[in-house]
Each structure stands twice: as C-alpha cells, then as structure tokens.
C-alpha cells in the first residue's frame, strides 16, 4: 500500500438546491402557500437572454445584504416592484422556519403564518427585512460566516403567488447595501473591503473578489484560461465569480471552499495550485457540472469534481504524476475507514468516501471507456452537454453503456458502485491525458505526441521510448465469472480490493437517499467534507 500523507477534514460543498437555488433552503418546510385563486409568478432565468420582458408584467424582487453594528448577524431586505397587472401578492420565505432567523421589520406586508407575508395592495414598494444569525465558522453560523471586518452570506429561496389577469414574470437580483463595501454574484454576497480583478478566459469573464487583497491570483488565472480552452464539458457561462476570503491556512477550517451555481469561494490558500488536489480546480469543475446525480447517484457530485479536479490540474502542469496517482488511490476513507457502497449514501455519509472512492472508480471507468472504444470516447462524453442531473444510478449506468456502446460495461460498473469492491487504479499514464495538445511536463513535446511515441506525457525524460504501452489492455471487455466470484481479473498493476458488504451501526450523522438534496445545502454543509493534504 502506498504511503499517504495525513489528512484533515475541511468543509467544501456544492450548494445546489432545485437547480441553481441558493444555500438558504429550508428542510421539511410545511408552511406552504395556499393555492386557491392564486397563481405562481413565472421565473425568469438570469442567464436566459432570449426572454423578452415588459415592465407592465415584470414582478421584481431585490434582495439586499448588509452587516449590522453588533456582530453575529446579517440583515437581508427583500423589496418588491409590483406591476399594475398584479392586484395581490403573497411571498413565502421558507428559512423563517429555522432557528436563528427572525423578522426585523416589514413595510407594506402583513405576516400570515410562520413563513408567509401578504401585500397590503397599497404600499408601492413593499419590503420585508430578516436578521440572520451567523458565526465565525460555517459550522457555528449555518446561515453564513462573519469574521472581523467581513461576512459571506448566501441568498435564500423565496416563493411568490399573485392575483393577476396576466401571469407576471418574476426576476430576482441579489446585492449589497449601497452604504457598505461588498460584492454579490450568483447567490453569494461578500460584505467587506475587497479588490476586484476581471480576466477574460476563452470568451468567458471571470471576476476575482479578493477579500484577501494581497492574494496572488496569477496561477489560478492561468488555470482558468487553460481549463476554458481545453477542459470544457460543453458548458459555457458568460461569467464566473471567485470569492477569495481573507482567511489564513490556520483559520480556513469550516470555510474552505464551496460552489453556488457559477460562483465559488476559497480561502487564500485555495488560489495555490501546487498539487493536483487543489481546491481551486475542484471548484472549477463544480461550476461546469453543477448537480451531476441525485438519489443513488448523489456520489457523482463530489466524485466527478474530485476526479476531474485532479485530472485537469495534472494536465495543466500542476503537481507530479506520482502524487496525482497517490491522491487518486482510495484505500481508506476519513474519518473512520468504514466499508462503503457508493449507491447507498447511508454507508458513506460523514466520510470522504464519495470523494475518494468516487474519484477512484471514475478514473478506472474513464480508462475502461477509452480501452473499449479504442480511445475514441472518454468519460467526459458521458457528462458533456447535459442540462439535467442523472436521476439515479441506472440513468448514469445507461449513459455510460451508450457512450461506450458496450452492454458488458454495465456489470463492470455495478461491481464497483453497488458493492464495496474497488477496481485497480489505471497506472498507464496514457489514460490520464485530458488534452493531447498540452505539454504538462514542459519538455517541448505535446502529451499526445509523447503517448504516440510511447513516452511518458507527464514526466519529462522518463525512460526510453516505449515506456507507455500503446496497445489496449486485454481481458477487460466483460465481467467474467471469475470476477463475479471475487477473483481479480484486472489488468492494471494493482489488485481490486473490497470486502463483503456489511451493515454499519452507529455511523456518523448525515443524510439518507431521500434527503440528498438538502444535505448539500449550506444548512448542513458540515456533512460534506473535503480533505486537503
């Protein structure tokens, strides 16, 4: 077993609730809006530039964040611009069912129930203000984080119903109060002094919001340019936003990194790309893939970001090939090294297994697809261009079979997703080339050309010609009877591992399949942890 460096658990989450809905989503909320004689306002996607909106039928919602004089809370004010066509408005703010969130004041709204407000029909610009308790870590203040001189908060969900002859289009914007410094984008607001740097990478605008004003974003910018040009999944954004929080390595615990839609935050150390397991590359993948899977495919969310975060960093010349493979090798899962089954979230909740085993299995699957298609297709083809997550594992399995055009790949994948078995990790570097035109080892020859010559694409001058095998590996085209009986038939240098599946009692707290969506919200972000070396 290869030596591994010590690991520490850090919070890192993909914040996705109902598509791009922000982190402040309530769980188990029952105070629903009544529907009699009311209709919902139609949402307008902020990224949908094709929607024609008319002022007479647009219901505008503006959410403004501000810090308070006394520490420990942030105020959010919800203000509404109501078109003449609307004669009645009800607004529900589900987070009001949670502790630590209170109504600070209303103007033109009457409260109905725990989470609902009704417009008085007379006030031209009605508003509701909420006070959210926050702490100095996301674990203590689950609504956001506040430290000396700055705060970070996410936009909560709201729901609206109207009385109107014509159904209005709802638009929502999130911002920072004019009276204080800050910046908001993609459901996140940073409150505090900062610098902003804008860069263009492959026709996509990236904004770095530097709360850590002395942070060096040069290497991260280089990675973004390479990634946008060479590592795309068929997904383009007009812009992405990177919030760099002013936290040191010693104080980054519980605010390490997270992604919301097309924005993510990192600490100062997150801008460093000195190892393939860099936080920055992991979060970049989240902005591209979003929610990858639900139900028994939930593990794909972090497994894919972990695998491609490592893979893309390696192909951009980050770290070493040796440490890359050591990081991908999943032999134990912090913190308690339990046996896990990826398709059963209850077996891995509270561990790093969905990151570690998830990435390991996807690395092996990527190589398997390449072998079976003579390297015409890769795992990236399974993910590319998708607008919806895989509804369950069977949907993902079907997409893999379709891309590889090989039914026998289904049983191969079942073995490693639906049991605790672990496949051999590919050791042939040809299977880790993500962009053959790049030169990650900086030896003057592109990695694709090096593979064609049988040379190592990630280690300059490594060995003679022919060190990298050019033929496809044999005996992997189907799941054999020996595999079914547990014998190792892998063709890589490492043996498959796994034990008989057991039920784990007294496991770490977390979420089951039915609560998967809520578990990736900020409200319970402590359940999803990322380890850093």
UniProtKB/TrEMBL annotation:
This is PGF-CTERM sorting domain-containing protein. Keywords: Membrane, Transmembrane, Transmembrane helix. Residues 469-491 have a biased composition (Low complexity). The chain crosses the membrane at residues 510-529. SUPFAM superfamilies: Metalloproteases ('zincins'), catalytic domain. InterPro entries: Peptidase_M4/M1_CTD_sf (IPR027268). It comes from the Archaea. Residues 420-507 are annotated as: Disordered.
